[in-house]
Amino acid sequence: MSKALDGVRVLDFTHVQSGPTCTQLLAWFGADVIKVERPGEGDATRGQLRDIPGVDSLYFTMLNHNKRSITINTKNKKGLAVLDELIKTCDVLVENFAPGALDRMGITWDHIQKLNPRMIVASVKGFGPGPYEDCKVYENVAQCAGGSASTTGMDDGLPMVTGAQIGDSGTGLHLALGIVAALYQRNTTGRGQKVLAPMQDAVLNLCRVKLRDQQRLERTHTLHEYPQYPDGKFGDAVPRAGNASGGGQPGSILKCKGWETDPNAYIYFITQAAAWPAICRVIGEEEWITDEAYATPQARLLHLKPIFRRIEQWTMTKTKFEAMDILNKYDIPCGPILSMKEIAYEPALRETGTVVEVDHPTRGKYLTVGNPIKMSDSPTEVTRSPLLGEHTDEVLAQLGFGAADIAALRAEGAV
Ligand code: CAO
């Protein structure tokens, strides 16, 4: 079967996490992704967080599936000339170097335009234009600068970063969308364009609801869905909301049977207005259906803490999975707190290709997260990440280099 991005060639000049997330998605949609790496070392993540000595780390393998790897030394003139050949024949260049690194290599926008005016040049940077545009940025810096950390954590605790890599993988997702849109626009303009996804902006986009709440707070000086209401105080900025949903349907994390010993024996429980009568029946508080203090969503906002305490008395009598089974029968929105171990062995996720077992020549079998986006006419088969420079000869031959040229380039340290 064909793939959505069949025929699209991507010069993948990315490293670490944000850029590779983007190019891995493009590869899963069918693009030919050629990852350019420094000879000898490659992407720094090949050697980071290693669990097997001398073998590409899971950090690297899990972000670089379905790609080819070519080594090119861009600090070598002949290496740069090879890169120029790739620029001429690719549709997209994706990079996430520190600000200015690409220009210092001589790969400026003007240079690329001269070689290939149809090329789309897509970049992740920590920040857009402004006071921090020259800064190097990693995941947690973006979470802090994008408004996530100040709005995450318990209401009386420190700002908190989240385990979800919204700065890196979140920005990679944004960039992939920008690239696909630019490819589409090129059909009518015939031109490439620059696509920039700053990590701060991507995190802020994902924290959009908190900027909503900032403005609500400035107007009304209170946020009724937050744990600070009704007894606590609000300052002038959106506070951390603990595990409250903070949205139109109040929710909370509640203990389930076994919580004393199992750190993940919890369920997220949402008191959706439509499900309120069913919730009252399940927990044995039928009078709350008509009691004025509880009958409407507005009235309940004054009593969320005691309401969730009462619901928790019920959830503590069930395992999270028993609670799920019962609550789902009544369309009460809820979700178990799943550990990574539970997710790794969940058969349904294996069946949909969201958790995939991959075989690797030096590592052996390992688990990875497959393509979370499912397309009926463009299925994804996850193939292993390339070894460093595994496809150097193959890519060079496709660019027209003969065996003797390749040997000469290698002898000079250009590839
Ligand atoms: N051959 C020769 N040199 C190469 C090369 C190659 N194939 N590929 C890269 N290099 C060189 C670059 O030219 C650069 O050299 P100069 O500094 O002399 O110009 C050098 O490698 C290092 O690039 P870098 O500054 O991007 O790398 P770093 O490890 O110091 O910084 C990071 C890493 C992520 C902080 C930085 O790249 C960055 O801020 N990127 C943008 C934001 C981003 O994507 N962050 C997410 C990272 S994932 O958590």
Number of strands: 11
- What are the bound molecules? oxidized coenzyme A
Structure annotation, total helices:
17
Which of globular, elongated, flat, extended, rod-shaped describes the shape? Answer: elongated
Query: Order of strands side by side in the largest beta sheet?
Result: 3-2-1-4-5-6
- Bin the helical content: 25-40%
Mean pLDDT: 97
Note the gap between the termini.
Answer: 34 Å
Provide the structure class.
alpha/beta
Oligomeric composition of the shown chains: single chain
- Rounded to the nearest angstrom, the radius of gyration is 26 Å
Q: Your description of this structure?
A:
The chain is α/β, with parallel strands linked by helices and 415 residues long. It is built from 17 helices and 11 strands. It has helices spanning 18-28, 58-61, 77-89, 101-104, 109-115, 139-145, 169-189, 199-206, 208-220, 276-283, 297-300, 304-315, 320-329, 340-344, 347-351, 392-398, 403-411, and strands at residues 9-13, 32-37, 67-71, 92-95, 120-125, 194-198, 251-255, 266-270, 334-336, 355-360, 364-369. A hairpin with a 3-residue loop joins strand 10 (355-360) and strand 11 (364-369). Helix 1 (18-28) packs across helix 7. The longest helix has 21 residues, at 169-189. The two termini are 34 Å apart. It binds oxidized coenzyme A. Oxidized coenzyme A is lined by residues 16-19, 36-38, 72-75, 96-98, 101, 104-105, 124-126, 136-139, 168.
Brief descriptors of the model:
alpha/beta; 415 residues; binds oxidized coenzyme A; single chain; 17 helices; 13% strand
